[in-house]
Structures are given as structure tokens and as C-alpha cells.
Amino acid sequence: MPHDVVRRMGYVLGIFKALQLLYREAAHADSWLKRENRAFGGQTPLQRMVAGDVTDLAAVHAYLDSYRGAWS
Q: Taking the alpha carbons of 65, 66, 69, 71 in that order, is the dihedral positive or negative?
């Protein structure tokens, strides 16, 4: 598998894990992904994630990690 694909998969799995830790209910995690967020220039986290560049996935991953860091 190309390194880029592995890297993207790692970010997606990390985002999934962080959402599971931050939100007990899947519906809350799903709604977070679809709400506009100032940290992403008014885009939803999902819009940012699918923008096409691996750095977009990294940005969402880092944002979530900054919140869950206290509980890691």
C-alpha cells in the first residue's frame, strides 16, 4: 500500500478513536462532524476532511487530539 494511503488511514482511524473518546453517543460524534466550526474557517470538520489533501485530515486529527489530550 502506498505510504500516502497508510498515512490517510491512520488519520481517519485517529479521528474515529478521538470521537469515540469524546462522545459517548455515536449520534453526537456524527453531528460534530457536520456542524460548522470556526477552527476550520466555518467549514464542517467533514468538509475539511474530504478537501483532498492529507494536511486537511491532519488538521482535524490535531484539533480533536488537543481536546482529548487531557484524558489520554
A: negative
pLDDT above 70 for 70: no
- Tens of pLDDT, residues 18-41: 999 999 999 999 999 999 999 999
What stretches of the chain adopt beta strand conformation (E)?
none
- How many whole angstroms separate alpha carbon 47 and alpha carbon 28? 17
Distance separating alpha carbons of residues 7 and 22, to the nearest angstrom? 23
pTM of the model as a whole: 0.88
pLDDT value of residue 67: 83
Residue 68: how many other CB atoms lie within 10 Å = 14
- Amino acid of residue 23: Y
CA-closest candidate to residue 63, choices 26, 46, 51, 2: 46
